[in-house]
Amino acid sequence: MAKIKVTQVKSSINRNKRQKATLEALGFRKLNQTVEHNDTPEIMGMIEKVSHMVKVEKA
C-alpha cells in the first residue's frame, strides 16, 4: 500500500473539538511534526477535514 507523509503546518489553537480530535487521531502532538500513514480512504477523509492545517506528500 502507498505511504503518505503528513505535516502539521498550522496550530490547532482556536479550532473546534472535532478538528483537534482529528489531528490527535492522525498522531500529531506538536506543530511541524511529520507522521507517515498508509494511503487509505479513512486516512484521506481525516486529512481532508483538516486540510487547511496540514501538508501532504507522497512517500
Folded structure, characterized:
With 59 residues, the chain is α+β, with helices and mostly antiparallel strands. The chain has one domain: Ribosomal protein L30/L7 (Ribosomal Protein L30, Chain: A). The chain is built from 2 helices and 3 strands; from the N terminus they run βαβαβ. A 3-stranded antiparallel beta sheet has the order 2-1-3, with no helix packed on it. α1 packs across α2. It is globular, with a radius of gyration of 11 Å. The mean pLDDT is 97.
Low-pLDDT runs: none
Shape: globular
End-to-end distance: 11 Å
**Structural Rg:** 11 Å
What is the third-level CATH name, the topology?
Ribosomal Protein L30, Chain: A
Strand order of the largest sheet: 2-1-3
Secondary-structure arrangement, i.e. CATH architecture: 2-Layer Sandwich
According to CATH, the homologous superfamily is Ribosomal protein L30/L7
The main pleated sheet reads as:
3 strands, antiparallel
The amount of helix comes to 25-40%
What would CATH call the class? Alpha Beta
What average pLDDT do the residues reach? 97
Number of strands: 3
* Class derived from helix and strand content: alpha+beta
Number of domains: 1
**β content, as a range?**
25-35%
Number of helices: 2
Order of helices and strands: EHEHE
